[in-house]
Amino acid sequence: MEKIASFTINHLVLEPGVYVSRVDTDPAGGTVATTFDLRWTAPNQEPVMDTAAVHAVEHLAATYLRNDPEWKERVLYFGPMGCRTGFYLILFGEYASSQIIDLLKGMCQFIVDFEGEIPGARPEECGNWHDSDLNMAHYHAKRWLENTLNVIDDAHMTYPTF
């Protein structure tokens, strides 16, 4: 069986960053989509994010991205990685990591500043509405914004090689 491309990345040296995971063309319609690996913590080196924080980030980030006037029509998907070290963002079109840094900075600042009821976090809107931690979402978004996005360089926008 063919190994999935993301499993060929050396997770022992991977650091927080914004990486192009793959660019695909839909064989039926010819639409191109870029999948980004938004790595918020260093795999196997730092504690993973707890599920309540990940859930809050997911709701807030998806709300921000799907309402951004410039990008909302290009957002196909935003969601967590099963390992809880980051998120996937899939956009219609082909993009480099450097092209979405400002979008991600705005997203993180939105999460950091957000107060009140998390969008889509009512029982009738979410299958696990009570598992959400806004304070930890603030913490993780601020940490990624300050320690990664605000100082990002090419090394943190290109997957490391084995």
The Cα radius of gyration reads 16 Å
**End-to-end distance:** 21 Å
Name the strands of the widest sheet in spatial order: 1-2-4-3
**Percent in strands:** 15-25%
What's the overall geometry? globular
**Level of helix content?**
25-40%
Q: Average pLDDT across residues?
A: 95
What's the total count of β strands? Answer: 4
Low-confidence stretches: none
Task: Describe what you observe in this structure.
With 162 residues, the chain is of the alpha+beta class. It has three helices and four strands, in the order E-E-H-E-E-H-H. It has helices at residues 51-65, 101-113, 134-147; strands at residues 17-25, 32-39, 75-80, 86-92. A four-stranded antiparallel sheet has the order 1-2-4-3, with helices on one face. Helix 1 packs across helix 3 and helix 2 runs antiparallel to helix 3. The model has no long low-confidence stretch (mean pLDDT 95).
